[in-house]
Specification:
It is elongated, with a radius of gyration of 26 Å. The strands form seven sheets. The chain has an eight-stranded parallel beta barrel, surrounded by four helices. Strands 3, 4, 7, 8, 9 and 10 form a six-stranded antiparallel β-sheet that branches. Helix 8 runs antiparallel to helix 11. It starts with a strand and ends with a strand. Helices cover 22% and strands 25% of the residues. With 591 residues, it is of the alpha+beta class. 51% of the residues are buried.
Length: 591
């Protein structure tokens, strides 16, 4: 489908089942009309010689004897002049280099979510570009994350957007630099050992500049035509724009799109936006509004990915605590590998932002740590900041800002936001951080407000804290294997004292068993006792209160400790340690 370059020219193929005739016009023929042949199955095609990558074109469609205006862009085009401009024949040839890349294991994955338009840009100009992201990749590699997740890079109206209003889902956003720039970013990321994930929007089409709205002229009443439901099922929170998942050609459209990102652009996984609205009209559990065709679409695409490139990850943003999202299609599930976990985010963020310690519920923290899908903690993505949860448009702010409004660099904001980071990076699941979180970005995020990279110097200690946590999470020093394991025991919950401790392990033993102690109280403890699974010396691998992370930290000594024989927390040994207010400590044993 689309424009397919070959040695002698380009083949054009388009779906227009209600057209009387279809022609292609472009720079290659002086914008005259080259007729396409009717394949008698809704498809039209023609082979045109002397067409080359870079040529612009549009389809000329006649419906019920009337030539449609404006002439239509190609729904499958990977490049355009703009969201309302001509389609462009993309050159698939690209030098991907020779540096080998292997997708990190999902037990080691640490995701950094970023928005191209604001990640590396200057205030007052146009949106940031893909090449600007390349310029900051060395920072991300140094930080230790091993995957970046791009907010949707598909074409949208104008230059500023989150990307969730796509006008052409196959086209790489023109203002970001187009398809060649995207390939350059992915190549550069792979050269640094970074996987790249793509955010895709299959729950609705954008309401403006849509490449598929009433594409071949047919539509029912005020509806959108062949790519859309033309009844009550078209209603979404973003307008009457839900795709018709019951049409084979529309299902193929999304399947082809997913495989394009993964195979032609070499993305390493997909994050699906708002899957609840693919499987249900209202995005909830109302069976009368279920969309079985949407459920089958998700399963079909995930099965295709698993069959072709099983090491690539599919992540759902469903937010309905639905285990079936990450169950296999063979058992009736949607076949996703992981899903964003509201069961972690909301209780943890609530505990971190409460004004009074008395309102912090440690039983909620225990539940958040232990929450999982289908008995597998790697079926969830855990976070305290995401684009949704820090966005001005949603009435949200950054976590440090919410902790202490107007004083995001205060002691309280630093202490409790870094406590949140420690929970994200030591809890079972796939951890994710949002751009700028590592240097205490403040305020709210919106699509025309670039990151303030000067904070990288102002809060370099906080950045070092994130780097140290990520190294522990990935077991880069060989001392915290348990943080990559699937096993968890939340063995200590002190609601009155506001302390929770959990035991992480893979196989168990020295350099594997990990103890994480989190203090949610304004008071510190010089000698706090928790249970330990093994006798001997426990080494402090991380203390979020270390003065090296911030000059206002360091209120409480925290040293390596040796067990004493005492049955505590259901374990045979006890350790006593110091822990500062609003702090986390990570311990493990040497050989």
């Amino acid at each position: 489908m689309g424009s397919i370059p070959h040695q002698d020219g380009v083949t054009f193929r388009v779906w227009a089942p209600n057209a009387d005739s279809v022609a292609v016009a472009g720079t290659f023929n002086g914008w005259s009309k080259e007729p396409l042949a009717d394949e008698h199955n809704g498809l039209w095609s023609v082979d045109v010689r002397a067409v080359r990558p870079g040529d612009a074109y549009r389809y000329v469609i006649v419906h019920d004897g009337v030539e449609l205006h404006p002439w239509r862009p190609d729904p499958y085009a990977t490049a355009m002049k703009s969201s309302v401009g001509d389609s462009v024949v993309d050159d698939p040839d690209f030098d991907w280099g020779t540096t080998p890349f292997t997708m990190p294991g999902w037990d080691e994955l640490v995701i950094y979510e970023l928005h191209v338009g604001t990640f590396n840009d200057e205030t007052g100009g146009g949106p940031g570009r893909l090449d600007g992201v390349v310029a900051r990749l060395d920072h991300l590699a140094w930080l230790g994350v091993n995957a970046i997740e791009l907010l949707p890079p598909a074409e949208f109206p104008g230059g500023f957007s989150w990307g969730y209003n796509p006008s052409s889902i196959f086209t790489v956003e023109t203002d970001y630099g187009g398809p060649k720039a995207l390939r350059r970013l992915i190549r550069a990321a792979h050269e640094r050992g970074l996987a790249v994930l793509c955010d895709v929007v299959y729950n609705h089409f954008g309401t403006a500049d849509s490449a598929v709205w009433r594409f071949d002229g047919w539509h029912a009443e005020s509806k959108g035509g062949i790519y859309y439901y033309n009844d009550w099922r078209d209603l979404t929170p973003w307008g009457h724009t839900r795709p018709d998942y019951g049409r084979p050609e529309v299902r193929r459209f999304f399947r082809d799109n997913a495989l394009m990102w993964l195979e032609r652009f070499r993305f390493d996984g997909l994050r699906w936006d708002a899957t609840a609205y693919i499987r249900n009209v209202h995005g909830d559990r109302d069976p009368g509004a279920d969309l079985p065709d949407g459920w089958r679409l998700m399963g079909w695409i995930n099965d295709e990915i698993d069959a072709r490139q099983p090491w690539k990850i599919s992540i759902a943003e469903d937010m309905q605590d639905n285990e079936w999202i990450t169950r296999s299609t063979g058992t009736g599930g949607a076949g996703f590998d992981a899903q964003w976990d509201a069961g972690f985010h909301h209780p943890v963020r609530r505990a971190l932002t409460c004004v009074d310690d008395a309102d912090r519920d440690m039983s909620e923290i225990r539940a958040a740590l232990a929450h999982q899908y289908n008995g597998d903690p790697l079926h969830r993505v855990v976070y305290v900041e995401s684009h949704d949860e820090v966005a001005a448009l949603n009435g949200k702010v950054r976590l440090p800002e919410e902790i202490d409004r107007g004083h995001a660099a205060s002691w309280y904001a630093k202490k409790r936001s870094t406590l949140g980071a420690a929970l994200v990076l030591t809890s079972p699941g796939i951890p994710m951080i949002f751009q700028g979180q590592e240097f205490l970005e403040d305020g709210s995020w919106h699509d025309d407000d670039p990151l303030d990279w000067s904070k990288l110097d102002t809060h370099d200690g906080i950045t070092a804290l994130f780097r140290d946590l990520i190294a522990l999470r990935r077991d880069r020093l060989g001392t915290t294997r348990g943080l990559r394991g699937r096993n968890l025991n939340v063995h200590h919950v002190n609601h009155g004292g506001k302390v929770v401790a959990h035991h992480r392990f893979d196989r168990g033993g020295p350099r594997d068993d990990v103890l994480v102690v989190a203090n949610f109280a304004h008071r510190g403890y010089a000698h706090y006792t928790i249970g330990a699974p093994r006798a001997g010396r426990w080494r402090v691998r991380f203390n979020s209160d270390w003065a090296g992370y911030d000059v206002t930290f360091g209120a409480q000594d925290c040293f390596d400790t040796v067990t004493r024989p005492a049955a505590v927390d259901g374990m045979p040994w006890a350790i006593d340690l110091g822990i500062a207010p609003y702090s986390a400590v990570v311990l493990s044993q040497d050989d």
